[in-house]
């Protein structure tokens, strides 16, 4: 018996778990899936939760109007259909009438009538009123500023009831926008847009999403137990199939069991010892056998060089330009492994648009060009401005989980051969990496950029909001204006222009597109991984052991 199953049997006294190690039918259903969460979820309130563990649990416990399939395409979830007005300012959704709020308090095989009730349009209205209420203080509201009156409500100038979301009846929901947004449908696949039942919310007396008794499910699974002791070693979060919703949208697993771990290394070790059915990870080659496991990879991260703006040497723009023009990506291309791909642009290939990779539609080939002669010219200018003929060795600060350092050594050798600068590598833990960045204890760092959700807007917005990039206000405004593009067909040229603007500041020199991985046991199928939120979704997961 798996470790987590054993713990749950002791704690809950559920003897049926002892016999659920295999599928109950030949369609792969009926299994208990074991997974792990990196740290305890901070909150299971969809309108405020922003950490990976919380998003994974929320994505399995709640469902929204729309969802993304395994290929990143938008599909109906609790919406039966929707219409968009000709001017792109009004979205009308017809809700599926078979989606229910459910909390099986008595753990019955057949749910009692009082344990479930329908999800209505009013639950979505209340969710958005909460999202924008100044009292909620949600960091996620900023993604939805295209909704009518959102800015006024968020600033406290207008009541949350005036937000541009209304219910025409129980199953018709209408959104009114301030301006057309081609990204709006993708936003409705993200967790802040999930419904919230007003009566249940107030019944929790301020504890909504903070414990097992203060959550309710309208998704594939409901919460059965959430136990966390920061000083203990057997922390678990246990979920069961939402029976009433499975009747119309089949939920394949019977149970989900999450151990709560304090490090990625502990999670990797659990998986290798067969205690877990799957993991998401930044590291794959050298740790896991491709012959033994199923795996999917997603190039969802762009790794690039950032420079300490207070560093007396590498804050120099001409020196940064010398490094940028001295990066021969074509030469390095054949020498790197498939964990990374040489990057010239900012938006990673896993971002999709019109059902295709954004990078297929907007090639990055001309965004950053190798030119050894220009590199030397900028280098000479830098030496003159800094009044020096040589530079002391420096090290690039690198998070140990982000990339194989051998890949970066290839580029370091290029800079040494061309410019005569020795640039080494200093690997540190993730906590140490961000601590050093925040304290300014670095000259150069290899920084990972990704999106909050599958969106070029979200990707580029990092450069407008992140403290590590010295982007002029004019470019920040251009980035924010991308959210006002009303048609996905207009994305490509506008986005590529803004990418070029950011690159021209040389505050971020892209070098690699990095994979993230979903790795599972070979007998498991259809576990969905969302590489930007990093949520792992089990509704359709099957086991054929």
β-sheet strand percentage: 15-25%
Which CATH architecture of the largest domain would you pick? Roll
Count of spatially separate domains: 3
Distance between the termini: 14 Å
Using the CA coordinates, give the radius of gyration: 25 Å
What average pLDDT do the residues reach?
A: 90
Low-pLDDT runs? 1-24
Largest sheet: 7 strands, mixed
Enumerate how many helices there are, as a single number. 17
- CATH class descriptor of the largest domain: Alpha Beta
Helix amount, in percent? 25-40%
Q: Which word captures the global form?
A: globular
Describe this structure in words.
The longest helix has 15 residues, at 372-386. The strands form eight sheets. Strands 13, 14, 15, 18, 19, 20 and 21 form a seven-stranded mixed beta sheet that branches. The protein is α+β, with helices and mostly antiparallel strands and 545 residues long. Helix 9 (317-325) runs antiparallel to helix 12 (372-386) and helix 15 runs antiparallel to helix 16. The model is unreliable at 1-24 (pLDDT under 50). It starts with a helix and ends with a strand. The chain folds into three domains: 1-59 and 211-283 and 523-545, D-Maltodextrin-Binding Protein, domain 2, CATH 3.40.190.10; 64-98 and 120-196, Dipeptide-binding Protein, Domain 1 (Dipeptide-binding Protein, domain 1); 297-517, Dipeptide-binding Protein, Domain 3 (Dipeptide-binding Protein, domain 3).
Q: What is this entry, summarized?
A:
The protein has 545 residues and is of the alpha+beta class. The protein is 28% helix and 23% strand. Strands 13, 14, 15, 18, 19, 20 and 21 form a seven-stranded mixed sheet that branches.
């Amino acid at each position: 018996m798996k470790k987590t199953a054993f713990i749950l049997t002791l704690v809950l006294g559920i003897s049926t778990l002892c016999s659920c190690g295999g599928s109950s039918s030949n369609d792969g259903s009926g299994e208990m899936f074991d997974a792990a969460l990196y740290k305890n979820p901070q909150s299971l309130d969809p309108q405020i939760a922003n950490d990976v563990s919380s998003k994974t649990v929320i994505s399995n416990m709640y469902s929204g109007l729309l969802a993304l399939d395994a290929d990143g395409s938008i599909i109906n979830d609790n919406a039966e259909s929707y219409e968009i007005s000709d001017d792109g300012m009004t979205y009308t959704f017809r809700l599926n009438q078979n989606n229910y709020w459910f909390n099986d308090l008595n753990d019955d095989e057949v749910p009692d009538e009082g344990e479930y009730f329908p999800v209505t349009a009013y639950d979505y209205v209340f969710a958005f009123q909460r999202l924008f209420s100044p009292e909620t203080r949600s960091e996620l509201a900023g993604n939805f500023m295209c909704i009518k009156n959102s800015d006024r409500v968020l600033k406290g100038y207008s009541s949350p009831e005036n937000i541009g979301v209304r219910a025409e009846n129980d199953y018709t929901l209408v959104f009114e926008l301030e301006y057309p947004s081609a990204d709006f449908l993708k936003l409705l696949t993200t967790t802040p847009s999930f419904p919230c039942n007003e009566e249940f919310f107030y019944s929790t007396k301020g504890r909504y999403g903070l414990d097992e008794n203060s959550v309710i499910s309208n998704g594939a699974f409901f919460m059965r137990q959430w136990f966390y002791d920061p000083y203990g070693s057997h922390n678990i979060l246990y979920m069961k199939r939402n029976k009433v919703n499975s009747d119309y949208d089949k939920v394949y697993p019977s149970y989900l069991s999450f151990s709560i771990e304090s490090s990625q290394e502990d999670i990797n070790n659990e998986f290798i010892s067969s205690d877990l059915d799957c993991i998401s990870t930044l590291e794959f080659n050298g740790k896991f056998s491709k012959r033994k496991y199923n795996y999917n990879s997603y190039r969802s991260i762009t790794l690039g060089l950032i420079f300490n703006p207070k560093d007396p040497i590498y804050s120099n723009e001409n020196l940064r330009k010398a490094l940028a023009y001295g990066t021969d990506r074509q030469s390095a291309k054949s020498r790197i492994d498939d964990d990374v791909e040489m990057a010239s642009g900012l938006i990673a290939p896993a971002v999709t648009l019109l059902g295709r990779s954004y990078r297929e539609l907007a090639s990055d080939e001309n965004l950053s060009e190798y030119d050894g002669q220009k590199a030397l010219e900028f280098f000479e200018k830098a030496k003159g401005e800094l009044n020096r003929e040589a530079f002391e060795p420096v090290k690039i600060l690198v998070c140990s989980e982000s990339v194989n350092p051998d890949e970066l050594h290839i580029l370091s050798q290029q800079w040494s051969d061309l410019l005569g600068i020795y640039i080494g590598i200093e690997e540190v833990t993730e906590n140490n990496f961000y601590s050093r960045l925040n304290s300014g204890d670095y000259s150069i760092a290899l920084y990972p950029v990704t999106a909050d959700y599958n969106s070029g807007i979200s990707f580029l917005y990092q450069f407008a909001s992140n403290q590590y990039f010295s982007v002029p206000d004019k470019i920040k405004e251009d980035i924010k204006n991308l959210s006002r593009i009303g048609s996905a067909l207009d994305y490509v040229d506008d986005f590529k222009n803004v990418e070029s603007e950011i690159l021209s500041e040389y505050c971020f020199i892209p070098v690699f597109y990095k994979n993230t991985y979903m790795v599972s046991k070979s007998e498991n199928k259809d576990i969905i991984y969302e590489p930007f939120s990093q949520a792992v979704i089990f509704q359709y997961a099957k086991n054929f052991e």
